């Protein structure tokens, strides 16, 4: 049986601080659903920490198709973004952005030191966040005439479906949502009803 849940953050986590040889690493974790959202968060952090040296981050979006990016923001190749992304993977979360903002303290940490520092900063940020499990949902649009309203509502109630939106004009259109593993059963329930279109 295919998994139909995923883990993500309930809300942005608390700011964390990791110090290493006078360098400061401020860690942040956010639940995100789009790259536009990520851009806005990064812009805000750059304003908030305008005197920092590096704003390194990694994000992962998606449940079926995974899309991720890791950014070293001027640190040596793969010394920041990938260690941060590694923590996103080890916590098993998605739709998440983790940022580590570095203030340089005058002492070079070396690549090994940087990898450890960014990894620790990302780990602390995720530990300071509440991780929740969500279901992967499938949406269906139902189209039907008013005379079938009771039939449709009965199935929605029986199957405990969420109504996402509804339009009542000449005909009725209701968008419902169900967790992925129940989707085939829901599709079948409505497909068997006469005069109701589901897609």
TrEMBL record:
Secretion signal, residue range per the UniProt entry: none
Record-annotated Impact N-terminal domain positions: 21-126
Pfam families: Impact_N
Family: Belongs to the IMPACT family.
Official protein name in the record: IMPACT family protein
Organism, as annotated: Flavobacterium suzhouense
């Amino acid at each position: 049986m295919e998994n139909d849940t995923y883990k993500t953050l309930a809300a942005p986590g608390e700011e964390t601080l990791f110090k290493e040889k006078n360098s400061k690493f401020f860690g942040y974790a956010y639940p995100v659903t789009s790259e536009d959202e990520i851009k806005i968060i990064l812009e805000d952090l750059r304003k908030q920490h305008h005197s920092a040296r590096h704003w390194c981050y990694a994000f992962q979006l998606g449940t079926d198709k995974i899309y991720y990016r890791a950014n070293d923001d001027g640190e040596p190749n793969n010394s920041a973004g990938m260690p941060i992304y590694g923590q996103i993977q080890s916590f098993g979360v998605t739709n998440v952005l983790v940022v580590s903002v570095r203030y340089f303290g005058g002492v070079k940490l070396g690549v090994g030191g940087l990898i450890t520092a960014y990894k620790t900063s990302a780990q602390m940020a995720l530990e300071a966040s509440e991780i929740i499990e969500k279901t992967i949902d499938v949406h269906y649009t139902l189209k039907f005439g008013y005379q079938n309203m009771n039939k449709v509502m009965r199935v929605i109630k029986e199957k405990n479906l969420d109504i996402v939106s509804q339009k009542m004009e000449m005909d009725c259109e209701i968008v419902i949502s169900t967790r992925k593993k129940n989707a085939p059963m829901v599709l079948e329930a409505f497909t068997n009803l006469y005069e109701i279109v589901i897609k």
